[in-house]
Every structure is written in C-alpha cells, then in structure tokens.
Amino acid sequence: MTGNLRLGFHAPHSSGEIADLLSEAAHAKIPIEVRGRGSKHEVGRLVQTGSVVSTERLTGVSLYEPTELVLSAAAGTPLAEIEGLLAERGQQLAFEPVDLGPVLGGHPGEASIGGVFATNLSGSRRILAGAARDHLLGVHCVNGWGESFKSGGRVMKNVTGYDLCKAVAGSWGTLAVMTEVTMKVLPQPAETRTLLCFGLPDLTAVEAMCLCVGTPFEVSGTVHVQAPLAASLSHPGIAAAGAAVTAIRVESFPSSVRYRISRLKDRLAAYSLSLELDTDQSRVFWEEIRTLRMFAGSDRPLWRISTAPSRAAKLVAIIARTLEIRAVYDWSGGLIWLDTTLTSDAGAVEIRRAIAEFGGHATLIRAERATRASLDVFQPLDLPLASLTTKLKAAFDPAGILNPGRMYPGI
Amino acid sequence: MSLLTLPKPDEAILARRDEIVRQLKKLVPDAPLIADQEGRRTYETDALTAYRCMPLAVVLPGSTEEVSRVLRFCHDNKIKVVPRGAGTSLCGGALPLEDAIVLGISRMTRVLGIDETNRCARVEAGITNISITAAAAVHGFFYAPDPSSQLACTLAGNIAMNSGGAHCLKYGVTTNNLLALRVVLMNGEIVDIGGDYLDAPGYDFLGLITGSEGQFGVVTEATVRLLKAPEGARPMLLGFDSPEAAGACVAGIIAAGIIPMAIEFMDRPAIHVCENFAGAGYPLDVEALLIVEVAGSDDEIEILLENLTDIAERYSPRIIRVSRSAEESALIWKGRKAAFGAMGQISDYYCMDGVIPLSRLPEALHRIGAICKAYRFRVANIFHAGDGNLHPLILYNANDRAELERAELCGAEILKLCVELGGCLTGEHGVGIEKRELMRVQFSAADLAQQMRVKTAFDPDWLLNPAKVFPLEGRTRQ
C-alpha cells in the first residue's frame, strides 16, 4: 500500500492495510483523522488533517459465545448489528451505550462498535453495570508507528500485562486505531419496570435517586429530566404532567421486579410517586434517554458534565444564575446533560467556573465548528495529568499523526 | 533460587548502602527504616516463598509526602524501588532486589471518609481489603472485590495486581470498583486521578495504573466504590460424575440468563481435602462439585435456587443440596475458603492462575491432568467457574530443589495450555517474577514493545519494581 496515502478518505478492508497507511503517514508525518462510521465526527476539537482513515469497512462479528458472555467484532461493525445479534439470544451490552446520533443531526444506530469504546460513552445502566471500558475485554489496534498490537483477550478475567484496553477506551482515536474489539455481554433482564415522580425540584430529585441506588434492590437507572425537556418524551402521561419527571428503573425476573418495586415505592412515599411503566413502556422511555431525544433537533450547545451526585443540583443552579439552561440528570446526578443558548463560547466560562468550584469535568458535545475551534471542548487537565497525557500520547503515537488535537492541543 | 534469575545487582549501589540508609533517615526521620539483617529478612520474600532476596533497606513511610520524598531521592540517585503492600503476592510481585529499596505502605491504613450519598470511601492504600468493608458495613455498604487473602492483603496490592475474588462474576474486579487514585510517580510527582464521581476526565489513567504491578507509581490513596449489601445470600451445592457435566451446567446457568454471585468449582482431590479439613458436608463420591451462590430477599433467593435446581437437573447431577440455614451456608463457604490452607496441611503446593474459555473446560482439565502425570505430580483443581479462572494446585515437596524446579516446569506447561485454549497466563494473581518469561507465549514482540513504551512513559529509567512482568532479555526503553 505504500505510496497510496494521498489526501482524502481511506476505508481499508483489513487491519494490515490500516497498518500500512499509518506506517506511511508516520514516516511522512502526515496527520490522519481516525474515524469509525463517522457518527460522532462533529464532536471534539477540530482536527486539521487532509486524510481520513476509517474502519467502516472492517465489519463482522468473528466470535459470539453466549454461554461465555463474550463477543468479538471488527471495529467498524455497526453497533445496531451487534445489538440485534445479541437480542436474538436474549443478551445485551449492559453499559447501554449512549447514542449521540440524533443530537448531532444524524439518526440513531449509526455508530460503530469501535467508536463506542473509543469514546467510552456509557448510558443509564452505568450505575449498576459499569462503563463501556469495563466491558472491553480485548483489543487489536494499530499504533502511530503503524504497528499492530493487541491487549487483553477473550476471557472475563485477565491481568496478563498492562491493561492497554483501558488506555485506548475513551482516547477518541488519539492513541491508536482499534481494528477489533472483544467485549463482555450480559443477559437481558426478563422484566423491567420504571417508577416515575413528577414535579420534583432538582435537589429533591437527586435526593430521591440517591435514596434508591442506596438500597439493595439493584436499581439500574435513575434519571431526572427538567420540565421543558420532559415534554419531548413520548409517553403521554409524561407530556400530560407538564412537569419535571424523575425515573427509577428496576430490572430482574418478574417476581423479583414486583418485590423490588414495592419496596422502592415505600421508600419513595414522600416523593409524589405518580406513574409506573411496564416493560414495553420502560423500553421506550429508556431508549429515549439513551438517544438523548430531549436534545435532538436543536443546535443549542450541549454539555456533558460528570460530577458527584451530592453536588449536582447546586452545580446546575449556579450555572443557571448566569446562563439559560435545560438539564437532564442521569446516574442519580453523577452525569448531567445540559444545553444552553447560542453564545460565542457556548457558556464555557460559566460552566467551567462552576466546575472549578464543585469538582468534576465538562465536555462540550455539540457546538458549531467555530465555537469548538476557539475553546477547550474537553475539560483542561491539571499540570501533572497534562504532563502524563503528553507522555502517554508519545508512547503510542510519537509523530502525533492520530487525530491530532481532537482532545487537547498538542495531543 | 530456582529456575528464574534476578538481574545482577548494581555494585556501585551496593557499595553506597550505608550512605543511602543515612540519607533516607535524614529524608524521612519519622518513617521506620529497616537496615539490619534480621529486620530486612522479614521482607526478603512474599507469598511466592521459593524466591528470596535481601533488599538494600526497607522504608515504611506514613504519608504521601514521605513516599514522594523517598521516590524523588531514589530517582535522583538511580536507586531501584520495590513497592510493597502486605507481601501476599503469589507471583513474586513484591520480591525485593539486592540493590533496591523496599517501600512498604502498610502503615498507611486510615479511612479518610465514607460518603453514603455518593457511595464511595476514600482510604489510604495500605488498608487491608477486609478493613474497607468493615468500615463501610456500619453504613450497610461493602467493597466488592474479595480476594482469598482479603484479611491480609492491602488495597494498594489489589490495585497493583487488579485483584479479583470469588464474587467478581457479579461485581467485577478491582479496576471496575475504583473512582480515584493518588499516585506518586518515580520522580516524586504526586498525581491525583479521578474523584468522587463515576468517570475521570481525559485518558483512563485509573484503568491503566490498575494492574500495572507497581511499575508506574506508588498508590498512596484511593477512592473506591461502595455497594449496598444484598438482603441475603445463599449457596447451593451441585455434585457431578464428571467435570464435563459440571462445565455444561455452568454454561446452562449462564445461557438461562442467570448470573449468580459466585460459581466455584472443585475437583475430586480438592473436595476430599477441603471436606477433611472443614467438615462442610461436601459429597465425597463425585468428580466435580459446584458451589453456586445467589443473593436477594428470601423469596428471590428461593425462586433463583428453584430455577438453578431445574437447570442443574438437565445435567444429571449426583447431588443437589440447597443451604437451608445461615450455619449451613457458612459451612459450605468455609470449606471453599479454607481450600488453600487445607491443601497446605497435606502438602506444599504451587498455585496456578490461568484462565480458559469455559467451553474448553473439559479439555483443559483432562490435559492438566496429563501434564501433571507426566511431571509425576498430583494436582487438585479449584476455580472460579463463572469466569474460567483456573487455580490448579500442583502438590510437591518444597524442600526438594529438583522437585521445585519440576513443579515450575509443570506449571509453565499448564499456563501455556491455557493460552493455547484461548485464555491467558493469569486471571488475578499477576505476572510478577513468576510468569515473566512466559509473556512471549501470550504476546508478540510488538504487543510487548507497546507495553514497555507505556512503562517508559511513567518511569523512564525503569527503577520501579524492575525484574518483573517482562522477560529479562529483549527489554527496550523506546
């Protein structure tokens, strides 16, 4: 393949071809945009490259052993294909990957499985089941030298050598190009129910959600959607309430769900409990949360904030003093999605000032290119971490050819 | 010393021993510093006792600041450092070197805070694993990873090795249960990663440092996730005429969509030893025994145990026995948890830690038997069946040097078999010194080169816990 790396779009059919392209790029110091199926292309700082290397033609599931809870797929395999295959055998990706397609102007289900792990985007069930990175058992990658390497494997437990899976998960393609991923899969629950409370103020909602996850009942989702956003959820009862909605999800076998729901209702007696969703209704509701339906079809800047639940409502209240915002609290408040009015900095100054006071980090998920070009999309790192970040980048991609600047300047 | 060798010590460092000790004393006057022969002997080995080596000196700092001062001094003077928790490593992860300082953090044991709302605990990393759960239990919480050595092992050691335990099928291993780390790098720099929230910004240094076997830095503090204890838990015993049937039953349980808290497997030799020791009521006329534990309310447990009974019956079990009382449950677990101690009473043993895909279990057990027979050893198999993590125990006489060397060769064959079957060399004990030379069985030169580059990023002079993890030949510091 040498000599083929011209400006433009490359979607090789094999990991070997990707290695050849990257080797050539490293040699010539040509920066590359690393892409899966492109569904999250518009997230991050602007990458100044003339060439794109995509994994979209590396597709297919090479291993699926339902009784061993393991699946391997080429990195470009559509997430939707994997989820479909798992569903046929009553299984799922337990970390419930967030689908950014709709809020970025695309459709749901367009992500690649490699992109899911490269961005470590985990959904509501993260509070019980862990993040995407916790389910990544093994990877095959090509680094910035154009060398293929692997880490991890296909078994559930593995401490052989360093866990480089963790390094590449969440690295947004800046350390290596994943060509194959092996993941842990889990059974789908037989039954799901969701308790809804309407009209809770944010602080009270967070308190109720924390109360529920602090029980032995394995609550698998807690989300609070502020009033103006709740109206865009499809369940007629929610729209009719015209108020903020707080949802608590339980998943298990039927009698267990009945028992756990009844115990949770006791605990929630003081919180104006109003509605209960059955399995089918729950599926729709949580799918809408997973695809961030509340924020779709808009160009308002969208932020993803990670913080401690106990400080979440105060953090949002402080931001709301200076910005016009609408917020959703997932993970009992540990994950906040909020959008704000269009301004030149998307509210970055106010949001980051609040973060500095309350702890956590904020990522600008949706904003115009000009805005993303002029501010820190990812939370700026403290000096010791920034220095380690530079060293780790150099250990994978010394020429700095992989998604240069996508996360941080110079990385 | 047996098959594995340690690198030749740096004579210049050895010659400076007295001076180094004096300087350390001045640097951290409040930290115990052990330089005498007898004192150092306590630290000459860990739980892989076949290997011993007297360190240059042992220092036991009491704070992150002291750890930082010691590391910066060692960095500037090019002195190697072996970090140590409680010294329970089964792979020689804490084995000293003659020209290295042992830096033990076993004095740093404080609980710094339990946060019920955010469900986490901030602790100093020298705390024992069990003490975290003890501190959290007051609030009805527990810390999930539960390695067999949990009474003694430190959280720092758990983080270094990414330790698991019997219940990680449901709750994950150490890396899945950490929120934040305070780490001192070899140059003395103190780095804080993560916080009291679920995901840290930027690259996943939390995940990368966990399982790095003390080669990236010394962890002095951590924030761990706490979970609410289930209302109750109860085990059942399933006995089978063949390991194949037991393996098929495990697959059947998982295929039915049930993920129990734990699925533990014992073969006939292990059953007999454990039963003799603990009187747990294990059946003695079966070839394989499963302990399956489920959790929840009494009603939930009853239903799950009924479902498990239905599933198990498809695999022609010789015996199905559900625990009917807390006493009976305790007894069932006593037998399993005493397994290593009980085995130690009848023979010295060499404990393996390979992992295989569950579907290869019958073949693995068959071939492990054949390997041990060829090396003229008896073997007992105990393992975490839900995740395929095997612990074959090779029974040998530790006082016979030739037998020890044969046991190591036998163990290496078993681990190579695990890799051949699609698994790995180690599931929860780590590579340490023990499996260092086998790394090429599992990894290509390029795989290892990438790992070594990451090592170099954290510790350019390779001063932290050297002589471990990578084969001694062919090390690169790119």
How would you describe this protein?
The complex is a heterodimer of chains A (411) and B (478). Chain A is α+β, with helices and mostly antiparallel strands. Chain A is 32% helix and 24% strand. Chain A is built from 14 helices and 18 strands. Chain A has helices at 15-28, 79-88, 113-119, 126-129, 164-168, 202-213, 227-230, 236-241, 254-267, 279-290, 309-322, 348-358, 369-374, 383-396; strands at residues 8-10, 32-35, 51-54, 61-65, 70-74, 91-92, 136-143, 148-152, 176-184, 186-187, 191-198, 219-225, 245-252, 273-277, 302-306, 325-330, 335-340, 361-366. In chain A, the strands form four sheets. An eight-stranded antiparallel β-sheet of chain A has the order 14-11-13-12-16-17-15-18. In chain A, strands 4-5-9-7-8 form a five-stranded antiparallel β-sheet. In chain A, strands 1-3-2 form a three-stranded parallel β-sheet, with helices on one face. In chain A, strand 4 and strand 5 (70-74) form a beta hairpin. The longest helix of chain A is centred in the first third of the chain and has 14 residues, at 15-28. The two termini of chain A are 27 Å apart. The model of chain A has no long low-confidence stretch (mean pLDDT 96). By secondary structure, chain B is of the alpha+beta class. Chain B is 36% helix and 20% strand. Chain B is built from 17 helices and 18 strands. Chain B has helices at 11-15, 17-27, 37-41, 64-76, 129-137, 155-161, 168-171, 205-209, 243-255, 268-278, 298-313, 326-337, 339-346, 361-374, 401-420, 439-442, 445-458, and strands at 33-34, 57-59, 80-84, 100-104, 111-115, 120-124, 141-142, 178-184, 190-194, 218-225, 227-228, 233-240, 262-267, 288-295, 319-322, 348-351, 378-384, 389-396. In chain B, the strands form four sheets. Chain B has a seven-stranded antiparallel β-sheet with strand order 15-12-14-13-17-18-16, sandwiched between helices. A five-stranded antiparallel β-sheet of chain B has the order 5-6-10-8-9. In chain B, strand 17 and strand 18 form a beta hairpin. The mean pLDDT of chain B is 95. Classes of the chains: A alpha+beta (411), B alpha+beta (478). The interface between A and B is large, with 83 and 93 residues.
